[in-house]
Amino acid sequence: MKTRIILLAVFSFCLLGDTFAKRKVEEPPSDRQQWADLCYKIAQPILENMSKGELQKNMQLELSPTWDGRDKRVAYMEAFGRLMAGISPWLSLPADNTAEGQQRRQLQE
Questions:
Q1: Contact status, residue 63 vs residue 80, Cβ threshold 8 Å
Q2: CA distance to 2, 21, 22, 77, 94, per residue, from 11 (Å)
Q3: In a domain, 4, yes or no
Q4: What is the pTM of this model?
Q5: What is the Cα–Cα distance from 83 to 42, expressed in whole angstroms?
Q6: CB atoms within 10 A of CB 83
Q7: Is 75 inside any structural domain?
Q8: Is residue 96 part of a domain?
């Protein structure tokens, strides 16, 4: 009886060990990749709509509860200005064939 239990335990362990060994461990993206993806996610809708002349039509404004009544039309230019001030160093990096480089090239066009 003990032998049967031991054999069953060893056999089960071999099956489970093989299952765990086949799992691929996916490495999380690097900090740089996460930041590049975030920059692209923020910049792409603004730059694409602005290049088509549709930013005001497609950008939904969210005003602060403490909004002081200034002209809402400046929000679009402010979004573009803040975006360019933030990502221009990243956009000015030399071209390369990485995924990040392709994102930069698409935003530059």
A1: no
A2: 14, 15, 17, 68, 56
A3: no
A4: 0.67
A5: 8
A6: 17
A7: yes
A8: yes
